[in-house]
């Protein structure tokens, strides 16, 4: 199982805007470079992209959760 980790500390978002759909749901295909979420740091939003391909297994943190650098945000099945 592959893990997608936060490169920076901040607030994690699973959607681009509150009324937008979540980036990925369990069972979705994930390609290299797919955006799976955003981390906001001081009003700057950083796209979190997958560096591996696989099937989305789920988020490891809730939407709008505070995260630390290196923390697992989501998992992919091989």
Would you summarize the structure shown here?
The protein is mainly β and 78 residues long. The chain has strands at residues 2-5, 10-13, 29-30, 35-41, 44-49, 54-59, 65-67, 72-77. It has a single domain, classed as OB fold (Dihydrolipoamide Acetyltransferase, E2P) (Beta Barrel), CATH 2.40.50.100.
Overview of this protein structure:
The chain is mostly beta strands. The protein has a single domain (about 1-75), classed as Beta Barrel (OB fold (Dihydrolipoamide Acetyltransferase, E2P)), CATH 2.40.50.100. The protein has no helices and eight strands. The chain has strands at about 1-5, 10-15, 30, 35-40, 45-50, 55-60, 65, 70-75. Strands 1-8-6-3 form a four-stranded antiparallel beta sheet, with no helix packed on it. A four-stranded antiparallel beta sheet has the order 5-4-2-7, with no helix packed on it. The radius of gyration is 11 Å and the shape is globular. The relative contact order is 0.38. The mean pLDDT is about 95.
Which radius of gyration do the C-alpha atoms yield? Answer: 11 Å
- Give the name of the CATH superfamily: RNA polymerase II/Efflux pump adaptor protein, barrel-sandwich hybrid domain
> Into which percentage range does the β-strand content fall?
over 45%
First-to-last CA distance: 6 Å
Instruction: Please give the domain count.
Output: 1
Question: Which structural class is indicated by helix and strand composition?
Answer: mainly beta
Mean pLDDT: 96
Give the strand order, joined by hyphens, for the main sheet: 1-8-6-3
**What best-fitting shape do the alpha-carbon axes yield?**
globular
Total strand segments: 8
Can you count the helices? 0
Unreliable residue runs: none
Enter the CATH topology name. Answer: OB fold (Dihydrolipoamide Acetyltransferase, E2P)
Largest sheet: 4 strands, antiparallel
Helix content: under 10%
**Element string (H = helix, E = strand):** EEEEEEEE
CATH class: Mainly Beta
CATH architecture: Beta Barrel
